[in-house]
Write the C-alpha coordinates for this entry.
Amino acid sequence: MKPFEYISTKSINEATQVLSEYKQDARVLAGGTDVLIELRRPHAKIPKAILDISYIESLNGISESDGLIILKPLSTHTQILKSDLVRKYAQLLGIAASQIGAPQIRNRGTVGGNVMNAATCADTVPPLIALDAEITLRSNGGSRTMKLVDFFIKPYKTKAESDDVLIEITFPKLPSNAQSAFIKLGRRNALSISRLSVAAILMQDKKGLISEARIVPGAALPTWMRVKEAEEMLIGEKPSLKLFTAAGQKVSEVMISYTGRRWSTEYKEPVIGVLVRRALEGCVKD
Protein backbone atom coordinates (compact mmCIF):
# COMPACT_ATOMS: atom_id res chain seq x y z
CA MET A 1 0.00 0.00 0.00
CA LYS A 2 1.30 3.46 -0.90
CA PRO A 3 1.81 5.90 1.99
CA PHE A 4 -0.77 8.57 2.74
CA GLU A 5 -1.25 11.31 5.31
CA TYR A 6 -3.56 10.47 8.21
CA ILE A 7 -5.49 13.43 9.56
CA SER A 8 -7.78 13.24 12.59
CA THR A 9 -10.19 16.03 13.41
CA LYS A 10 -12.62 16.78 16.25
CA SER A 11 -14.77 19.44 14.58
CA ILE A 12 -16.91 19.70 11.45
CA ASN A 13 -15.27 22.99 10.45
CA GLU A 14 -11.81 21.42 10.56
CA ALA A 15 -13.06 18.49 8.49
CA THR A 16 -14.50 20.70 5.75
CA GLN A 17 -11.29 22.74 5.68
CA VAL A 18 -9.17 19.65 5.20
CA LEU A 19 -11.47 18.36 2.46
CA SER A 20 -11.46 21.76 0.78
CA GLU A 21 -7.65 21.68 0.73
CA TYR A 22 -7.22 18.13 -0.57
CA LYS A 23 -10.44 17.92 -2.66
CA GLN A 24 -10.47 14.67 -4.67
CA ASP A 25 -7.21 13.56 -3.05
CA ALA A 26 -8.81 12.87 0.33
CA ARG A 27 -11.02 10.07 1.62
CA VAL A 28 -13.19 10.26 4.71
CA LEU A 29 -12.84 7.57 7.37
CA ALA A 30 -15.77 6.97 9.73
CA GLY A 31 -16.20 3.32 10.72
CA GLY A 32 -13.68 2.16 8.14
CA THR A 33 -15.54 -1.00 7.13
CA ASP A 34 -15.57 0.05 3.47
CA VAL A 35 -12.59 2.39 3.12
CA LEU A 36 -9.97 0.17 4.73
CA ILE A 37 -10.99 -2.84 2.67
CA GLU A 38 -10.87 -0.77 -0.50
CA LEU A 39 -7.38 0.56 0.29
CA ARG A 40 -6.05 -2.99 0.56
CA ARG A 41 -7.13 -3.98 -2.92
CA PRO A 42 -4.19 -4.55 -5.31
CA HIS A 43 -5.08 -1.78 -7.76
CA ALA A 44 -6.77 0.64 -5.36
CA LYS A 45 -6.32 4.36 -5.91
CA ILE A 46 -4.59 5.54 -2.74
CA PRO A 47 -5.53 9.09 -1.70
CA LYS A 48 -3.02 11.65 -0.47
CA ALA A 49 -4.90 11.97 2.80
CA ILE A 50 -7.27 9.95 4.95
CA LEU A 51 -9.49 12.19 7.07
CA ASP A 52 -10.70 10.48 10.25
CA ILE A 53 -13.96 12.07 11.43
CA SER A 54 -14.80 9.36 13.97
CA TYR A 55 -13.87 11.63 16.91
CA ILE A 56 -16.35 14.39 16.06
CA GLU A 57 -18.82 13.93 18.93
CA SER A 58 -21.51 16.13 17.36
CA LEU A 59 -21.82 13.64 14.48
CA ASN A 60 -22.92 10.78 16.72
CA GLY A 61 -26.27 9.97 18.31
CA ILE A 62 -29.96 9.35 17.71
CA SER A 63 -32.57 11.82 19.00
CA GLU A 64 -36.01 13.27 18.31
CA SER A 65 -37.34 16.79 17.81
CA ASP A 66 -40.64 18.23 16.53
CA GLY A 67 -41.89 14.91 15.19
CA LEU A 68 -38.58 14.03 13.51
CA ILE A 69 -35.98 11.38 14.23
CA ILE A 70 -32.50 12.88 13.98
CA LEU A 71 -29.91 10.31 12.99
CA LYS A 72 -26.30 11.45 13.14
CA PRO A 73 -24.00 9.90 10.52
CA LEU A 74 -21.51 8.32 12.95
CA SER A 75 -24.30 6.28 14.55
CA THR A 76 -23.31 2.65 14.17
CA HIS A 77 -25.62 -0.08 12.97
CA THR A 78 -25.58 -1.49 16.50
CA GLN A 79 -26.72 1.86 17.92
CA ILE A 80 -29.56 1.93 15.40
CA LEU A 81 -30.82 -1.58 16.07
CA LYS A 82 -30.71 -0.97 19.83
CA SER A 83 -32.38 2.46 19.70
CA ASP A 84 -35.79 2.66 21.39
CA LEU A 85 -36.71 5.55 19.07
CA VAL A 86 -35.96 3.44 16.00
CA ARG A 87 -37.87 0.47 17.41
CA LYS A 88 -40.93 2.62 18.07
CA TYR A 89 -40.97 4.93 15.05
CA ALA A 90 -38.87 3.25 12.31
CA GLN A 91 -38.84 -0.49 12.90
CA LEU A 92 -37.77 -1.38 9.36
CA LEU A 93 -34.55 0.62 9.77
CA GLY A 94 -33.65 -1.35 12.89
CA ILE A 95 -34.36 -4.61 11.08
CA ALA A 96 -32.08 -3.57 8.22
CA ALA A 97 -29.28 -2.55 10.60
CA SER A 98 -29.55 -5.89 12.42
CA GLN A 99 -28.88 -7.78 9.19
CA ILE A 100 -25.67 -5.98 8.21
CA GLY A 101 -22.53 -8.09 8.43
CA ALA A 102 -21.42 -9.57 11.73
CA PRO A 103 -21.51 -7.96 15.21
CA GLN A 104 -17.99 -6.61 14.66
CA ILE A 105 -19.09 -4.88 11.45
CA ARG A 106 -22.28 -3.53 13.06
CA ASN A 107 -20.24 -2.17 15.96
CA ARG A 108 -17.92 -0.23 13.63
CA GLY A 109 -19.91 0.46 10.47
CA THR A 110 -21.88 3.71 10.39
CA VAL A 111 -25.11 4.75 8.73
CA GLY A 112 -23.30 7.75 7.24
CA GLY A 113 -20.76 5.50 5.59
CA ASN A 114 -23.54 3.27 4.26
CA VAL A 115 -25.19 6.30 2.66
CA MET A 116 -22.10 8.09 1.36
CA ASN A 117 -20.50 4.94 -0.08
CA ALA A 118 -23.69 4.43 -2.14
CA ALA A 119 -23.09 0.74 -2.77
CA THR A 120 -25.96 -1.01 -4.52
CA CYS A 121 -26.23 -3.46 -1.62
CA ALA A 122 -26.47 -0.77 1.10
CA ASP A 123 -29.07 -2.12 3.52
CA THR A 124 -30.04 1.09 5.34
CA VAL A 125 -30.76 3.13 2.21
CA PRO A 126 -34.07 1.51 1.13
CA PRO A 127 -35.60 1.90 4.63
CA LEU A 128 -34.41 5.51 4.87
CA ILE A 129 -35.94 6.36 1.50
CA ALA A 130 -39.18 4.63 2.53
CA LEU A 131 -39.10 6.81 5.65
CA ASP A 132 -38.83 9.92 3.43
CA ALA A 133 -35.44 10.80 4.89
CA GLU A 134 -33.57 14.03 4.20
CA ILE A 135 -29.83 14.57 4.56
CA THR A 136 -27.84 17.69 5.42
CA LEU A 137 -24.36 18.22 4.00
CA ARG A 138 -21.90 20.88 5.13
CA SER A 139 -18.95 22.33 3.27
CA ASN A 140 -16.86 25.49 3.56
CA GLY A 141 -19.57 27.23 1.56
CA GLY A 142 -22.33 26.38 4.06
CA SER A 143 -24.99 23.71 4.52
CA ARG A 144 -27.61 22.28 2.19
CA THR A 145 -30.43 19.81 2.70
CA MET A 146 -31.98 17.46 0.17
CA LYS A 147 -34.17 14.40 -0.02
CA LEU A 148 -32.09 11.25 0.29
CA VAL A 149 -33.81 9.80 -2.77
CA ASP A 150 -32.41 12.71 -4.84
CA PHE A 151 -28.85 12.30 -3.53
CA PHE A 152 -27.80 9.32 -5.62
CA ILE A 153 -26.69 9.50 -9.25
CA LYS A 154 -25.70 5.87 -9.74
CA PRO A 155 -24.02 3.15 -7.67
CA TYR A 156 -21.01 4.60 -5.82
CA LYS A 157 -21.73 8.10 -7.16
CA THR A 158 -23.64 10.81 -5.32
CA LYS A 159 -24.26 14.55 -5.53
CA ALA A 160 -21.80 15.19 -2.69
CA GLU A 161 -19.00 17.65 -3.48
CA SER A 162 -15.40 16.87 -2.58
CA ASP A 163 -15.53 19.04 0.56
CA ASP A 164 -18.95 17.91 1.79
CA VAL A 165 -19.43 16.25 5.16
CA LEU A 166 -22.71 14.48 5.92
CA ILE A 167 -23.86 15.96 9.24
CA GLU A 168 -27.41 14.75 9.69
CA ILE A 169 -30.14 12.39 8.49
CA THR A 170 -33.72 13.19 9.50
CA PHE A 171 -37.10 11.58 8.86
CA PRO A 172 -40.63 11.92 10.25
CA LYS A 173 -41.77 9.48 12.91
CA LEU A 174 -44.09 6.83 11.54
CA PRO A 175 -47.63 7.18 12.93
CA SER A 176 -49.19 4.55 15.16
CA ASN A 177 -51.19 3.02 12.29
CA ALA A 178 -48.05 2.34 10.25
CA GLN A 179 -46.45 -1.10 9.99
CA SER A 180 -43.13 -1.70 8.29
CA ALA A 181 -40.85 -4.48 7.12
CA PHE A 182 -37.44 -5.02 5.56
CA ILE A 183 -36.40 -8.23 3.85
CA LYS A 184 -33.20 -9.07 2.02
CA LEU A 185 -31.82 -11.95 0.03
CA GLY A 186 -28.16 -12.86 -0.17
CA ARG A 187 -26.07 -15.81 -1.22
CA ARG A 188 -25.71 -17.14 2.32
CA ASN A 189 -27.37 -16.90 5.73
CA ALA A 190 -24.61 -15.11 7.65
CA LEU A 191 -22.43 -12.13 6.72
CA SER A 192 -24.64 -11.80 3.68
CA ILE A 193 -24.39 -8.95 1.16
CA SER A 194 -27.79 -8.06 -0.30
CA ARG A 195 -28.44 -9.39 -3.75
CA LEU A 196 -31.97 -7.99 -3.56
CA SER A 197 -33.91 -6.30 -0.77
CA VAL A 198 -37.24 -4.58 -0.13
CA ALA A 199 -38.31 -1.96 2.38
CA ALA A 200 -42.06 -1.55 2.82
CA ILE A 201 -44.43 0.59 4.89
CA LEU A 202 -48.20 0.23 5.01
CA MET A 203 -50.80 2.33 6.80
CA GLN A 204 -54.39 1.16 7.26
CA ASP A 205 -57.51 3.11 8.15
CA LYS A 206 -60.12 2.09 10.72
CA LYS A 207 -61.86 -0.11 8.15
CA GLY A 208 -58.65 -2.05 7.52
CA LEU A 209 -58.13 -0.54 4.06
CA ILE A 210 -54.66 0.53 2.98
CA SER A 211 -54.43 4.33 3.18
CA GLU A 212 -50.75 4.71 2.34
CA ALA A 213 -48.08 2.43 0.90
CA ARG A 214 -44.35 2.79 0.34
CA ILE A 215 -42.24 0.22 -1.47
CA VAL A 216 -38.49 0.66 -2.04
CA PRO A 217 -36.50 -2.21 -3.59
CA GLY A 218 -32.75 -2.45 -3.09
CA ALA A 219 -30.15 -3.65 -5.62
CA ALA A 220 -32.88 -3.83 -8.28
CA LEU A 221 -33.02 -0.41 -9.97
CA PRO A 222 -30.30 1.95 -11.26
CA THR A 223 -30.83 4.07 -8.13
CA TRP A 224 -33.10 3.64 -5.13
CA MET A 225 -36.65 4.93 -5.48
CA ARG A 226 -40.19 4.26 -4.41
CA VAL A 227 -42.16 2.21 -6.93
CA LYS A 228 -45.24 4.42 -7.18
CA GLU A 229 -46.93 2.18 -9.75
CA ALA A 230 -47.08 -0.67 -7.24
CA GLU A 231 -47.95 1.59 -4.32
CA GLU A 232 -50.98 3.02 -6.12
CA MET A 233 -52.36 -0.49 -6.66
CA LEU A 234 -52.64 -0.92 -2.89
CA ILE A 235 -54.39 2.31 -1.90
CA GLY A 236 -58.01 1.82 -0.83
CA GLU A 237 -57.70 -1.97 -0.97
CA LYS A 238 -57.90 -4.57 1.76
CA PRO A 239 -54.67 -6.52 2.30
CA SER A 240 -54.66 -9.92 0.62
CA LEU A 241 -52.26 -12.44 -0.84
CA LYS A 242 -53.62 -11.75 -4.32
CA LEU A 243 -53.16 -7.99 -3.95
CA PHE A 244 -49.61 -8.28 -2.61
CA THR A 245 -48.66 -10.77 -5.33
CA ALA A 246 -49.90 -8.32 -7.98
CA ALA A 247 -47.91 -5.50 -6.37
CA GLY A 248 -44.80 -7.67 -6.44
CA GLN A 249 -45.35 -8.42 -10.12
CA LYS A 250 -45.67 -4.69 -10.80
CA VAL A 251 -42.35 -4.00 -9.06
CA SER A 252 -40.78 -6.71 -11.20
CA GLU A 253 -42.18 -5.09 -14.37
CA VAL A 254 -40.90 -1.67 -13.32
CA MET A 255 -37.45 -3.10 -12.60
CA ILE A 256 -37.21 -4.59 -16.07
CA SER A 257 -38.44 -1.36 -17.68
CA TYR A 258 -35.37 0.37 -16.18
CA THR A 259 -32.73 -2.34 -16.50
CA GLY A 260 -33.86 -4.23 -19.57
CA ARG A 261 -33.31 -7.96 -19.76
CA ARG A 262 -29.85 -9.19 -18.89
CA TRP A 263 -28.23 -12.41 -17.64
CA SER A 264 -29.54 -11.92 -14.08
CA THR A 265 -33.13 -11.06 -15.04
CA GLU A 266 -34.26 -14.68 -15.19
CA TYR A 267 -33.44 -14.90 -11.49
CA LYS A 268 -34.37 -11.41 -10.32
CA GLU A 269 -37.71 -11.13 -12.14
CA PRO A 270 -39.60 -13.69 -10.01
CA VAL A 271 -37.55 -13.20 -6.84
CA ILE A 272 -38.12 -9.46 -6.43
CA GLY A 273 -41.86 -10.08 -6.78
CA VAL A 274 -41.78 -12.68 -3.99
CA LEU A 275 -39.71 -10.40 -1.74
CA VAL A 276 -42.19 -7.56 -2.22
CA ARG A 277 -45.09 -9.87 -1.38
CA ARG A 278 -43.36 -11.12 1.75
CA ALA A 279 -42.43 -7.60 2.86
CA LEU A 280 -46.02 -6.42 2.44
CA GLU A 281 -47.28 -9.46 4.32
CA GLY A 282 -44.86 -8.52 7.10
CA CYS A 283 -46.59 -5.14 7.34
CA VAL A 284 -49.98 -6.62 8.23
CA LYS A 285 -49.06 -9.33 10.73
CA ASP A 286 -50.72 -8.95 14.12
Remarks:
- The mean pLDDT is 94.
- The radius of gyration is 19 Å.
- Residues 5-52 form a domain with the Uridine Diphospho-n-acetylenolpyruvylglucosamine Reductase; domain 2 fold (CATH 3.30.43).
- The first helix runs from residue 12 to 22.
